[in-house]
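Supplementary Methods, section 5.1.

A reviewer requested that the exact input to the structure prediction be made available. We therefore reproduce it here, unchanged from the version used in the analyses.
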Amino acid sequence: MPGDRNLTIVYAGAASLVAITLVYVFSPSFAIDSHSTSSSQRQKGVVGLINTGNDCFINSILQALAGLPELREYLIHRGRIAKESGEFSKKPFLSEALKNILNNLNEKPIRRKVISARPFLIVLEAIFNQRISRAQQDAHEFLQIVAEKLAQEYYTMEKFNKKERERKKIEAEEAGSNEQQLNGSQIWPELDLIGEYGMPLEGTLESEIECMKCHFKTRPVQSKFVVMTLSVPLKTSATLNDCIDGAFTMEYIDDFQCDKCRLQLAITHYEAKSSTCKPREREMIQDYIFRLQQALEINPQSPPADVPLPPSSTSTRSRIAKRTRMSTYPTVLAIHLSRSIYEHSLTSRKNVCKVSFPENLSIGGLMDRRRYKLQCVVTHKGGHDSGHYECFRRHNVWPAPFSTPHPPSPGDTMPGTPVISVTSSGSATPSIKEISEARDSIAESNGSVSPITPISPSLSVPAQIGDERPSPPPSIRTATSATPTGAETPSPSSSSPTPSKVDGERKRKKVKNNKWWRISDEKIKEAKTDDVLSQQKEVYLLFYERIREDR
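The structure derived from this sequence is encoded token-by-token as follows.
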């Protein structure tokens, strides 16, 4: 009938309008986590930074630091400790300022969003009591300043925490408390969540010198670093491993004065002199020889202060071999590729050598090899004295507190944190590594995770010290459906995923890990891993994060 046909047309039109409205309203939120590379979505999902004039060296470093989850976790926990102590709120605190701006840069805006780095720069300028120049600056120097200040604040807090521990321990002993209650977690509960690596950007280099004439080896000299600088070779192309080998392979240096050779020369000099001197002077010379021989056996680098030695000009020169190795591996390895070439006429130019770098990096010897994964890259286009910096950030999806600008307090509910059920029989509680692995498993999942009760800090201390068998980390399923002791648990067949679901998760995981952000101040585009690895001529700073299984 005509009436029914008209009614059907009206219903179809209304349904179409409703569908269009739903797509218009809800599509922006879905576009953030989609894998589409259309131009309408390239500016969504990450926050940009305003460039008020030559600020690209600041913006690129801040965007790179925002893409390091281990650094953000460290800053969050350090901020909580500083807040609890109340000691570091009286003066500018760079760790807190950096944490705030990195949280803002990790928001998930539905539409294009740009913020200013001025609040962070105000704190940085207040710390050094001078303004940052807006002329052409080096991104590596800015990173070095920020990282060194973070390390300085770390040791200041460690010194303060040590004094507080000792003070509270003395107070508890005077009050007659039980020694078992005098552990660190009772004083600073958040210290158990920081991890065993301390400042994530800090590592230790150890160098040793060997004389090729007498084969005397000096005591190893250790030096800490927050950014490892590698020289780029003067050739058309090279690899990152070539640059690393150039810094850690044996180096030979000529015309070096060996401490042991100098003492041996002094002993020979006094022995020849004692045969021709007077008897009274011979006793003093014999004492010199005896003390020099003792220093030669104990430590040739510390000769007797009151024994005259031959002048340095008359000492023999020898060839030495210098060895350098990394004795402490940082959690976040920041690599600076030095591209400066200085000519004899005091002019400088840029080394345009193409440096290929891998997505997964392995460094160290056979017995202490460590594996790292590339997280961020800072590139530079232009000459030695001018140009533009850009940042490539890997698109990571982290659980809270990384996805929230204001992390909840320890007593609040924290989404994305797994529940670890502890039985009343005193079963072994999970370690920090297991908690970290559970966090990683949640971060790699594509499904939504419901809010879960946070882990108590006391769970980081094992209940059974004698049991060395590590318990398996909790999975997403056990974390979201943890049942109390004595409750009925589901059968293994019902909880095992189907092959099709596993294949789908692997495909989504592979696509998600291949997604990067290319950030140039306010301009943001999507990129892939191949696009990042192709920046061989422009690569300037590399940020690798240590894989958790190697810790």
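Residues 139-174 form the longest helix (36 residues). These observations are discussed further in the main text.
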